[in-house]
Design a protein that fits this description.
Blueprint: E1 9-14, H1 20-29, E2 34-39, H2 51-68, E3 73-76, H3 79-92, E4 97-98, H4 104-110, E5 115-120, H5 122-125, H6 128-137, E6 142-147, H7 151-159, H8 166-172, E7 186-189, H9 198-204, E8 210-212, H10 215-226, E9 242-245, H11 249-254, H12 256-261, E10 266-270, H13 285-290, E11 298-301
């Protein structure tokens, strides 16, 4: 039975559609939460951005979203952004934030061979934060970090209906297939995009390797933050979920079917010009632009 506590609204942000794996997990637990999703496609992928640029960008998006929506929480559905910006965002805004953490702890608990693979973007595998996770939760394990910058674009292509390039995927995973790692029994999917390629990744790895998805732990943490009891709630009769891109309408056109199947009633363009990305002509135009009225920040379109 649904109660007033189930009527929550959240914002999910990622540089692309990887955060949709988190949305799916959220809906599996509680399907009554209203979701606004910003796919920051203009800055895709986050994994290669400098920390200063990424911090500014997330501040801009969150600031604009809080002007537009009444939010109960914000989910930063990106490992790189979570490790770089989350503490800064929590200090700057009063809304609760939930980030993504690679499930190193779970991997350390279930690995029998004590050999673990971590597939992630370059922005994640090089962080000291990963060192701390390994030291805390898998100190006796050999954790092989594999930079996979090609996987997120491949996941984006798959969602747009393009075939997965198996040769390219095999090359990206080659570091996990060397004889010295033949006993590897757990691989962490360290980017929210990667579960979209779960079937294809499993096909390229040895039999018996367990793939760990970060999405469900994020969803469970969100329920704790929102103080919602677990248990699937009845879906709202009126779907108010909205999906926004930050580049152009080509993104909407190429993902029309995917968004419809994902249950988003509206999608459109979110104008998120950040201060670092804008001009600096001394006029203060960029500051005004970032704080301009909501109707100038986006235009939406529903099903045709």
């Amino acid at each position: 039975m649904m109660n007033d506590n189930d009527h929550k609204s959240i914002l999910v942000i990622d540089s692309g559609i990887g955060g949709m794996t988190v949305v799916k997990a959220i809906r599996e637990i509680n399907n009554a939460i209203s979701v606004a999703y910003i796919s920051d496609s203009a800055f895709f992928p986050y994994g290669g951005l400098e920390s200063r640029v990424l911090t500014d960008r997330l501040h801009t998006l969150v600031d604009q979203a809080l002007d537009r929506f009444s939010l109960d929480a914000v989910v930063i559905a990106c490992n790189t952004a979570s490790t770089v910006v989350l503490d800064n965002l929590r200090a700057a805004f009063s809304v609760p934030f939930v980030g993504v953490v690679p499930p190193v702890k779970t991997a350390g608990e279930i690995s029998r061979s004590r050999i673990i693979g971590l597939l992630a973007t370059e922005g994640t595998v090089r962080r000291a934060y990963i060192d701390a996770l390994i030291n805390d939760f898998a100190p006796d394990c050999q954790v092989v970090r594999v930079e996979c910058p090609d996987l997120a674009p491949m996941a984006e292509d798959k969602v747009r209906g393009l075939p997965v390039d198996r040769t390219r995927l095999r090359a990206a995973l080659s570091a996990c297939r060397v004889p010295a790692l033949s006993d590897m029994d757990v691989v962490i999917l360290g980017c929210t995009h990667y579960p979209i390629l779960r079937t294809e990744i499993a096909d390229e790895l040895s039999d018996g390797i367990e793939l760990l998805d970060p999405a469900m732990p994020v969803a469970r943490q969100l329920m704790r933050v929102l103080d919602i009891e677990h248990g699937r709630a009845r879906r709202r009769q009126t779907n108010s979920d909205q999906f926004f891109f930050t580049d152009d309408e080509n993104s909407f056109n190429s993902m029309r079917l995917f968004l419809a199947e994902a249950g988003f009633s509206e999608s459109g363009y979110w104008n998120a010009r950040s201060l670092l990305a804008g001009s600096d002509d001394g006029t203060g135009a960029d500051q005004y632009y970032a704080r301009s009225p909501v109707q100038n920040l986006y235009r939406t379109r529903g099903p045709e």
